Amino acid sequence: MPESRHFTVINEPFVCIVCHTQVAPLRTGCRNHCPVCLHSVHVDRFPGDRQSDCGGLLVPKEIVQDGKKGFMIVHRCKSCGEIRTNKAALDDPEQPDQMDAILEVMKNRSLHIRGRRG
Ligand SMILES: [Zn+2]
Ligand SMILES: [Zn+2]
After folding, report:
1. Where are the domains of the chain?
2. Read out DSSP for 36-50?
3. How far, in Å, are 22, 40, 80 from residue 18 at the CA level?
4. Which residues form the RNHCP domain (predicted)?
5. How far does residue 16's CA lie from ligand 1's centre (Å)?
6. How far is the CA of 90 from the centre of ligand 1 (A)?
C-alpha cells in the first residue's frame, strides 16, 4: 500500500524522558514534544508515524515563526543529528506549551548568535 499521504498517525499520551511530565495527546493535531521542557524523542519519520528506530533525544535548538502556523520548534536529534520542526501548541486548551520554555530556547539561541550582552 502506498502510504505517502495517509500514513498512520499515532497520537497517544507519553511521559517526557527529560522532566517526566505526563503529556496528553493533542486533540487538534499531533504533538510529539513535551509542553514543559519542549524536548522530544526521535521516533517518527513523519510526524506521528512512529516509524523511526533512532530513539535519540530531540533537543529544542531554535524557535522559528511561521506566518501561518505560528511558533515552530526546531529540534536536533542528539543521536543522529537530524533536524526536525514541530508546531508549538501554545493554544492547546488542556496542556499548552509553556511560553517560558519557548522564550528560554529563543534566548539561548540569540545568546549563541550574538554572544553575551546585557
Ligand atoms: Zn519535558
Ligand atoms: Zn535521531
Report:
1. 14-113
2. TT--EE---SSTT--
3. 11, 9, 18
4. 12-94
5. 5
6. 15
